[in-house]
Amino acid sequence: MISLRRLGTLAAVLALTAAPALARVEVTLDADTLNDLLADMAPDHAEVALTAGKKLTIQMKDMKVTSFDPTAGPNGGLVTSLRLIVPDLSIDVPVAPRLRLDVHDGADGRKTCLLRFDKVVVNLPLTGSVDIASLLPPLPLMPDSGWIVNSAKGRVRVKPNLVDAKTGAKNIRLAYDLEISPAP
Questions:
Q1: What angle do CA 69, 45, 66 make, to 5 degrees?
Q2: How far is CA 144 from the centre of its chain?
Q3: What pLDDT score was predicted for residue 15?
């Protein structure tokens, strides 16, 4: 006869062997790390559609994180500096864009994390100050992807699932659950 204690232990062992393994990982991104990531992830330009099929190109050069703002929305954000160039309008100005850290639930139930331009003020001679944040594309932060790892027990698939993202005074902290399962 099996005791309740042994039955509970057996159920726990079966649950652990039948389901994919989970591990929690936290990633902390300071200004230097974010600058490296943004150099690779941020597009160097954005195309803005105008009327009659015309486009305006906005170039973004030398983007750097200058500070973190934990109070910018529910997940915080950051302040950057960059050179904004609009060749068709002969504009080449330094700006200090504010970016908001947005976490969204996807259709598949998984969360994604983006840096979204919140405020990008450009002073123009004829119109005065104009906020062009809505014309700039959001920047994915640590895209949700999986990879195959060779382990001592064979190939395993590791898939991150974003749990939380918050901005602190000196960094952004991302928390992931890692699903670990046998590779196909």
A1: 25
A2: 9
A3: 39
At 18, list the tokens.
């039948």
User: Domains in the chain and their CATH numbers?
Assistant: 20-182 (3.15.10)
| Contact of 16 with 175, CB cutoff 8 Å | no
* One-character DSSP codes across 53-84: G-EEEEEEEEEEEEEEETTSSTT-EEEEEEEE
Q: Which of 24, 61, 30, 48 is nearest to 164 (CA)?
A: 24
Cα–Cα distance, 97 to 119 (Å, whole number) = 6
Q: To the nearest whole percent, how much of the chain has pLDDT over 90?
A: 37
CA atoms of 144 and 174, how far apart (whole Å): 12
**pLDDT tens for residues 76-134?**
999 999 999 999 888 899 999 999 999 988 777 788 888 999 999 988 777 889 899 99
Are 32 and 39 a contacting pair, CB within 8 Å? no
